[in-house]
Predict the structure.
Amino acid sequence: MNIILLSGGSGKRLWPLSNDIRSKQFIKIFRKKDGSYESMLQRVYCQIREADMDAKVTVATSKSQISAIHNQLGEEAAISAEPSRRDTFPAMALAAAHLSDVQGISPEESVVVCPVDPYVEKDYFAALKALASQAEKGEAKLVLLGIEPAYPSEKYGYIIPADDGEITSVKTFKEKPTAERAKEYIGQGALWNGGVFACKLGYLLEKAHEQMDFTDYQDLYEKYDALTRISFDYAVVEREQSIQVMRFAGQWKDLGTWNTLTEAMEETVVGQGVMDETCRDVHIVNEMDVPVLAMGLKDVVISASPEGILVADKGQSSYMKPFVDNMDSRIRFAEKSWGSYRVLDVEKGSMTIKVTLRAGHSMNYHAHRRRDEVWTVISGSGRTIVDGMEQKVERGDVITMSAGCRHTVIAETELKLIEVQIGEEISVQDKVKFELP
Amino acid sequence: MNIILLSGGSGKRLWPLSNDIRSKQFIKIFRKKDGSYESMLQRVYCQIREADMDAKVTVATSKSQISAIHNQLGEEAAISAEPSRRDTFPAMALAAAHLSDVQGISPEESVVVCPVDPYVEKDYFAALKALASQAEKGEAKLVLLGIEPAYPSEKYGYIIPADDGEITSVKTFKEKPTAERAKEYIGQGALWNGGVFACKLGYLLEKAHEQMDFTDYQDLYEKYDALTRISFDYAVVEREQSIQVMRFAGQWKDLGTWNTLTEAMEETVVGQGVMDETCRDVHIVNEMDVPVLAMGLKDVVISASPEGILVADKGQSSYMKPFVDNMDSRIRFAEKSWGSYRVLDVEKGSMTIKVTLRAGHSMNYHAHRRRDEVWTVISGSGRTIVDGMEQKVERGDVITMSAGCRHTVIAETELKLIEVQIGEEISVQDKVKFELP
């Protein structure tokens, strides 16, 4: 089975855990059997592997997520990264070209396309395999997964099937309706459109070539910024006559808000947290290293991270976006290809951060124009290069770098350091990259 | 007017703002006209000064609070500090001896004794002056302030006056009653006993000498650890026949719990915090430098500090003590005589803290046996002494100290530094003090 996982954009509806550079699919919130936690992305990736050992997974994403994906899945997963955001049709075209031209998959093979963020169980992946087989038969150009509605949701588009068969043709599509209208649709046997479908790889490529002028993956990648923004539904699905839908009646939960996310959590407390016995339906997700104490609350979600603290009635939390948009958006935690950093302290004229480098990784060789920096290595070992001079470093070593001085650190083991930045103007923009000497 | 302000022990009922070493009276939570914030202690001290420019204020407290009191009131306030905790009678005896022997106040002058933590207005201090005058007249040995009950509280003792006169003799005292019983008392004209009284200084000294064997302040101080623990009520008030009570009908709120404290706050948000329009009766007190977002809550207090995060129904918050007792009690923020420190990061084998020194102050000259330290000065200037070698330091300077190395820093201006501690065992106990060379 070939799968394209759509790993979407930044979401603010799960603030303070998600923000401009950290998306909900990377939050480690689901407890594994061994007691550690995994993210939506890791969970779905493992589930695919369990359903089909030989599945070829390609993550379609944006450039900014590449580091986080490699950190969470390792180097094994194929990534098709858009150089810029161009909506779903260009993204799928690029991923299809990647499968064909980079991975060498035949246009006769089928490919399943699905978003990374629904919370699903084993039966879902069995359904995806059935979807892939059905597409390979070629009875229709596109085979959609139609999800049996759990309630008359206003958040999804609806598929009206021709009849109540397990696999049948599509009569028509309906846009996101009112709850009232949704009930009517459901009365007519309508199914949710979760954006999951299968088709032959050749079909995707054919549709792409019809509407975009390119030769192969590399060519499409280079022309990407100039492509028109257009959704796959609008560009392809709505114009296609030959579409089937396959019913799916298993669990399928969209984890886009705290309300739905906490429903999918097996535990009520992740991180340090205590509740008194009068709390009811309270969830605590705490990424800080200080405890949370909750008392006498009902239907409330509490989440704390280096970005901020949310305390919200679960229903009300769906409306957080405008409040989060207005917040100070200084990023206080970020995953990078080489590891991660966390802001510990901000003062006028200085900032203190903790940097964690993965074994074998290094920062860019870079300099700052307007700030000095001091590194104190607190664990691990590696090498620093400062203005071309290389030296071994280990726990306890201190490296001072004046403004203008070029520097990097290469981790041999996992290496952590405290970086104190000092300067009148401290900004992430103040960074000049260089080739290593 | 002579006033002894009783600045009591550590309270956990206002966690995470109060803890073992930081008491509620030092939390800066009340907004002043200039927009800055003041603590209970600072507020009451200013109110006394406004009511009586010449008032002599002595703060009776424990050794551990001296630094915080000096930081908040300056060096001007007299402090009578118990070398160890010995309940209220020994504490008052020591303070009385301080007034007499250190401050030279005549035994014929009256002295008002009151706790530092009720939330009161101007009329209260007018009442204290009247109380002092009444005591000076000598009609009775002790004159208590009887507070008109706002409700049948179970938290206070009650005073039953002989009649309903403004100043009258006390018929009897009643222990903290049930609410039912409290109603009966109030029906009989009972008043709250808030622990506020006045008497001649000589009376306090006489009672002290009757029950403790000492010559003067210095002698009592030295014998303090051997004194019996006994309360002033039990040792003196309950045995005294000549007691008057003066009625007080103004505002008097005990700020011992979040419920009562938030009632006294003029603003609903202190620190970074945002509420949506569906929040009702919500208070946010945030000492962290990340925002709090509250949505859809009712009657809830949210408080965040470097010690932890509280989210509690206001009524329920009164029952927090057992939960707080069970929490990790690592202190993450502390005020010292020389300034303050805050823990920024804790890792296995290292800890990073921010140290703020007040201008003109310095740390003890000290060494650690089992850890190295690195200082990076992030603002201000001063001098360091490291193994006897003195050097000037300013913003950007880095000082490294191996285990065993003796060190201190003397701030010329306010000076802030980041201290990285590195060692297998990091403990506050690992500190050896030395005389400066």
Q: What stands out?
A: The mean pLDDT of chain B is 92.
